[in-house]
Amino acid sequence: MNTKNKVPGGAATTRGLVRTALAAVGAATGNLLIWLVARAAGASMLVDAGNYSEVGAGLTVGASFVPLVVAGAVTWLLAARWPRVRGIARWAGVTLALVSCVSPFLAASGGTSWALAAMHVVGALAWYLVTAPTSKRR
């Protein structure tokens, strides 16, 4: 059997990578909507990172999409060899995203901090959906 061009883990890994891509698009879209609503409501979207930086639409989409895709791909590829990795990564990622909800309140104010914290919650939900158990199909 020729295995040179196959994805490690086969169909399950391929489905996981597709789930990852879809969840990343969903998270980026959801967070962009939060950003648009926050801007329309008057949030400055300025963050104090030594000096003030504006959180723009591009940063919102990139910070939502790229980490989910990279972490999801690594998780699914590792889980093809070590299935327990997925459960560990699920709770580690959700915990990290939810604990980091505090950081916007330390670096921003008003509507900006609430919008950024909500984006972290969207990321946590997307990550959970990427790594959640799936039913086994025959």
Explain this structure.
The chain crosses the membrane at residues 21-38, 58-79, 91-108, 114-130. Keywords: Membrane, Transmembrane, Transmembrane helix. Pfam families: DUF6069 (PF19545). It is a single chain. The protein has 138 residues and is mainly alpha-helical. It has one domain (10-131). It has 5 helices and 2 strands; from the N terminus they run H-E-E-H-H-H-H. The chain has a two-stranded antiparallel ribbon with strand order 1-2. Helix 3 (84-99) runs antiparallel to helix 5 (110-131). The longest helix is centred in the first third of the chain and has 31 residues, at 10-40. The two termini are 22 Å apart.
Topology:
Blueprint: H1 10-40, E1 46-49, E2 51-54, H2 57-81, H3 84-99, H4 103-107, H5 110-131
Mean of pLDDT: 90
Topology as a string of helices (H) and strands (E): HEEHHHH
Q: Looking at the structure, what is the overall shape? A: elongated
Number of domains: 1
Q: Low-confidence spans: pLDDT under 50, at least 5 residues?
A: none
Termini distance? 22 Å
Total beta-strand segments: 2
Count of discrete alpha- or pi-helical segments spanning 4 or more residues: 5
Strand content: 5-15%
Q: Would you tell me the structural class of the helices and strands?
A: mainly alpha
Taking the sheet with the most strands, its summary is: 2 strands, antiparallel
Strand ordering within the main sheet: 1-2
CA gyration radius, whole angstroms: 17 Å
Helix content: over 70%
Summarize the structure.
The protein is mainly alpha-helical and 138 residues long.
